[in-house]
Each structure stands twice: as C-alpha cells, then as structure tokens.
Amino acid sequence: MQLSRRYSLLLGVLVVGHAVLAQSPPQRGIAVIMAEGSAASSMSSEKLALIFKRKRNFWDNGDRIQPVNLPPAHPLRRAFSQQVLGRSPEELDDYWRDMYFHGVLPPFVLASEEAVMRFVATTPGAIGYVSACTPDHRVAVVLRLDEGPGCARQSQ
Questions:
Q1: Where along the chain do its domains lie?
Q2: Which fold has domain 28-145?
Q3: E strand or H helix at 33
C-alpha cells in the first residue's frame, strides 16, 4: 500500500508539473524557421503576419508558402500570435471563420515543436516557429522574436 501511495503522489506531481509548464510563457524567445537552403534568408514581422494570415501565399520564386502553427493552447503559439498577429489564437477565430467563407484555410497545426521542425525541413515552402533553442542543422532561422535568456545547449 505504501508503494502505491508513492506512485500516486509521483503521478500527481507529474500531472501538476505538466499543467504548470503548459501555462508558463516561453523563456527563450521564438525562432521562425524554414528549411536549410530556402530562398528566404531573412524575414520581417510584417511579412510574417501576412504569411500567417494567409494574405501572402507564394514566395518570390513562385513556391507555395506552407505556414505551420502549434496548437492554440501551446504557450509558444500564444506568444507568437500576440507578437506577430497582435491577437491571441482565440481572438483570431472570427478572422478564420470569415476567411473560410472566402475559401482560405488557416495554417496547418502540428502537435509539437519537433513535428514543426520535421515538417519545415522536408516540405518545400514551409515556414514555422519553435523555441529559440530548438533549431538544429535541418532548418535555418530567418527571424528571432522575443529574445530572452541565452540557450543552454545540451551535448548529445
């Protein structure tokens, strides 16, 4: 019985810890990423807003732009939406309902930062965002937002 209580307590701590982490804001900034070797080597916040509002659909070279988001409740998505689009994901619901009637769909939503990295690295024209410390050799950072404390990279 004692061991069972310990497991219950550990499980409770993990669940509460996960909930707290999910609500905390990102601490290390946001990196806007594209595939390594993509046509765009830098990006402005204004251009990024047009892309994520689906008002700009093609790169200068003619490739279709494929923006990807994290889930609406993800702290990084919330920070990105506030900084780039000036509204929370919930505040953009009316915008997307209106756009839907014009035949425009919102960006794809992927479940994790790793999923965003993989999609961006392998999909022509894709653009997304991850925590500033997350990008690796598969992607290129084209814009940094909300610079925070430096990254403490772990060796693997």
A1: 28-145
A2: D-Maltodextrin-Binding Protein; domain 2 (3.40.190)
A3: strand 30-35
